[in-house]
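User: ok so my PI wants both of these folded by tonight, can you help

Assistant: No problem, let's get them done. Here's the first:
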Amino acid sequence: MTPLEYAQVSFEAVAANKLRSTLTTLGVAIGSAAIILLISISIGASREVTKLVEGLGSNLYLVAPARQKGAALSGTASISRLQMSHAERLQRETAFHVVVSPVLNNAATVRHGREAKSGVVVSGTLPNFQEARNWRPARGTYFRKSDVDSVRPVAVLGQSVETALFAGGDALGREIVIAGEKLRVTGVMESKGQLFDLDLDNQVFIPLTMAQRLFGTTTLSFIFVAVPKPDDIPAAMAEARRILGQTLLPDQYNVRSQGETLETVQSISLIFTAMLGSVAGVSLLVGGIGIMNIMIVSVIERTREIGLRKALGAREPDILVQFLSEAIVLSFLGGCFGTALSYLGALVASKVYPSFVLSVSLTAVGLALGFSIAVGTFFGAYPAYRAAHLDPIEALRHD
């Protein structure tokens, strides 16, 4: 028999028992869909985080408070010892032409008239924040150095804040209230979109001096440092550690580049993807056991047919390939059905969670189909071997 004839006979055998074949392929389909969806979710999450990190700038590094020992267990935040003097020294003493942008962050409720939005990230910055982060107003203007020096009550809104407080109207020139202080809106930032449930446009930018007055602190949350070229990052970071080390202990600050953050994210994503794929693979193996069970039943039911084929000259390899082909066809159909289920699941997930666009990964589809066929081959081998080695005389006597 040719491979095409084997395939035709296998499909006919599968079609002869429609209900049994459907139930058997269902187990493989569920396992395949689980593999595709879980791997696609992991890849999609990694892509979103990577986009966010790269959006910060490849020529950027961050100085932040170091996490204290036991802080993760106690749930306490890191204590910042970063001061404006540290940012000024980084700007003044580094050999590179850097842009140093200190930031003071705090969550607050922002009000306009009767409208209020809680949980808004209020960021006190300097005008050079636009250059450091490559993030500028879509409308209006950012505040100037004179606004910082005079502690002027002005603000630049993220687009989500404008939409929530001004009902789609223009916020320019209007007033908002933060911590009891009235501030005039001078601009609205470009949209940065969302990362999962984190709205990057849910921010308000105010002069750093105003933030220090509102929140009653002079410490900084972190310091952005942009260097001329990405290749200068390692040398600039080493220089930053030398400068900061003169006034801070090593466990009081942390210097990280976006590249290091990206490498960490990708490593975690790889481990996460492997774990999810392994868990889903177990369900596919259970489906493979179902295939082996059904194929053994099929061999028992077709014992006389096997004996007749052998009596007419069929060799053991012919019987082996025939039954192995049927197992592979079952697993392949299950893989195809699982792929269709995964696309349907991705569509439903995108409707339920519109902020997270789940796209089925072709790599995951290929892995799932390949694994399905491998499972069918492995679990179909024993029933096929058993069928091939039946004694033709005993097989013909079977009732």
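One down. Here's the second:
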Amino acid sequence: MITTMQKPYKPEQIDHILNPIVKKWFFTRFKEYSLPQLYGVMEIHSRNNILISAPTGATKTLTGFLSILNELIDSSEKGILEDKIYCVYISPLRALSEDIKVNLTNPLKEMEESSGKKFGIRVASRTGDTTTYEKSKMLKKPPHILITTPESLAIVLSSFKFVDHLKDVQWCIVDEVHALAENKRGTHLSLSLERLQKLSPAMTRIGLSATIAPLEEIAKYLVGYDGKDVRPCKIVDVQFIKKLDIKVLSPVPDLIDTEHGNMHDAMYDLMHNLIQEHKTTLIFTNTRSATERVVHNLKEKFPKFYGEDNIGAHHGSLSKDHRHNLENRLREGKMKVAVCSTSLELGIDIGFIDLVICLSSPKSVARALQRIGRSGHRLHDVTKGRIIVLDRDDLIECSVILKSAIEKKIDKIHIPTNALDVLAQQIYGIAIQEQIHINDLFKLIKGSYCYKDLSRKDFNEIIEYLAGKYISLEDRHIYAKIWHDEETGMIGKRGKLARVLYMTNIGTIPDQISVIVKIGEQVVGTIEEAFLEKLRPGDAFVLGGNVYQFKFARGMVAQVSASSNRPPNVPAWFSEMLPLSFDLALEIGRFRKLLNEKFCLGKSKKEIIDFIDDYAYVDKNASLSIYNYFFEQFNYAEIPSNSRIIVEHYTNERGMKYTIFHSLYGRRVNDCLSRAVAFAISKSQHRDVEIGINDNGFYVASEKSVNVMHAFKLIKSKDFRKVLDMAIDRTEILKRRFRHCAMRALMILRTYKGHTKRVGRQQVSSMILLSAVKRISPDFSILREARREVLEDLMDVENAKKVIEDIEKKNIKIDEITTTVPSPFAFNLIAQGITDILKIEDRVEFLRRMHKNVLAKIGSKKDVNKGGLEFDYMDAWKKAEEEKLANKDAKKEKLKMQAWNLKRVPTFAKREIVEMLEGKKEIKQDFIDGVHKYKKEIEKTWPKEIKEYVFKKVLQ
């Protein structure tokens, strides 16, 4: 049974249970017990499962450990402290594990010094960084508190000897539950916790989490099930214990009609002023590239204030040493400002931060509170955050985030369930640890929250795969990993290398590298694999300033063709951008609906602005911007909302026909809806269409006439899942995700007998394997899991299906309109791909001109240019192409000059280079031989540009 605690314990009750040494140490460090401690310490002392949800710096970790340290010191003083593991602490980050180790050993030393006693309490960390020597030391003398990660816990649970030390664990602490529960690392951990509970039946589970919802489901995830009943767990909800000081700021009064240069300068001036008003500032961006850009621009614009010693970037692409160095400098108070994407969201100790700036929308209320919660790290500090908005959609999004944060409305996280690839990996680990009856194994797995609804059919299919029932897979070197005696029902490991194979291939995080982009054999650059996943054949994107059209991918190579006559439809930042949460999207939709009602009732400008002020807690500048945005949309088109989808038909000057769905449900839902529509069009009308999506909607575009609404009406909720299964069947996203699932299920081994398989080889193997499993069954378990992962974890098929159901029930109304210029709410969606090929100034100018055209249409300005939008867009397009051409010509002339000025090079060779630059296709063999012969000398003496050009042409 899950219950939420209503009252804290009294301080005297905690005083009564604490050892005098622990109590003395505590009150030399703290004035009083914190609220989480008043709720949690007694419950942990009483061996009750508990989930504590509190902001960063609210003493969650000490709450979790205080009772445990107290009991260990008691046992030590009484001489009954045994050589065994009493507590397992699990954290998602190795760095956090090291922090905790330090934060436990220091208090223990202080207590030893103040009491003059030696307790002999050992604390050790076992992660991927732990040396063999340290591991062997632990085996002989186990730590009383073991600090580990989900992957390392799974390894020790299947180890030959160390597992004996886990047979009487008293407490298990899972830190940062919110960061684990929403992905497959958390799914993997949920099964490891069941395995640990089987070894230690009396174990108490303690969960520590930042701001998250729904807390009841997270509590169930933490404690799991005993048979059909959820294990008991108490929830401590003190998520809003700290005072919040959050504001949404706009660098300029008008977010649409301001020149880029002015907007850019105002944004950095605003950031600089905020930074200088505080001791240490942490800035969050939504992409790694933006992180680097902010650091560079602050240094460039304010060189007297920022240098290598007091500003730095922190993200996953940087080296471990760089990240650790920056974290240490933050702890030591040497940094004025640190800029990161998502890497500092979790509770690594980074010292005192007194301001957090979020650049653009954090895309969810929980994430906003987690990020801003990094400021005011101490309990009684104020959590101070400023969200800087850069466009009107951002402004509305962030205003609703601010309202939801103040009103304590947290968006719900998605917890993956029935992940069959993780299940296969864990069953293999269990079989390595012990022989077990199949029914006991099924019962053990069903104890996990993530597998409580697992069917016996799915379970049996995984057993059949692991036991080698599919003989044809042996052609792909996939052999039986376990034996299953169907008469006795027993299961065990197969093969002498089982333990080594398992431990060297364990984990859920897939290997990822850059994908090489080629035209034929010519390399044109690289893209992230996550970006490739989003591409469909025919999609256009920008790389190195040029537009390319995607054809197909093999292994880690993507084949493209040059696309000079069409703009891109997939923006370069698409794979990096965080998706808007569904719950927050609905809140924004409700806000839209309320404003639409005000406009429909003919309320005055003052009345509507006053309503915005009261509703969204924003300042006058922001309310005026919001009012103008909605005024333009209402008077030019229609205002969509959570219960009303506006379908906007618009044809541009080149004859491209756009159907824009204003479906504000977040990008994960819109990904499902757009793919279903495109699939319905391809099947019913035999047309391929272009699609573009963002959080606020999606569009379907085609040069030929397509009846999009007819296709949309074909989509029914009862068949929605099947339609999407077919829609993603031959896509890059399924091919890539199948590789990830096959690796988790150990169908593809990353490491075998000391050899590591490169990601490119893994992908090629997975594509051959994909064909093989489809021949066995189109519904093969691991292929089915890849589909589930794409549709449920990456996209949001459940909420997309709810949208379709609500349309069928008439809860969501569909209205169609036709426009000659995209409506204001469609600006960003239509512009997102195009703007990659424009300079940032041209992008802003492009949006401003669209805005002016809308104003002209609704007649609010008489002197506005009444030329069409496409003239503006084509102007910008032509300007960008001409500049590109001019740059290419200038570079060509420069290379020609370098060629003629080469020293000790025969004239015929110089002429050959110049002719190559002028477009000559065939290169003389004498020249090719000469380049090969004198390659080393050329490398040393030729200028860089001409050398690279010749080598690319001759040696490719």
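Residues 860-878 have pLDDT under 50 and may be disordered. The radius of gyration is 30 Å. Good luck tonight!
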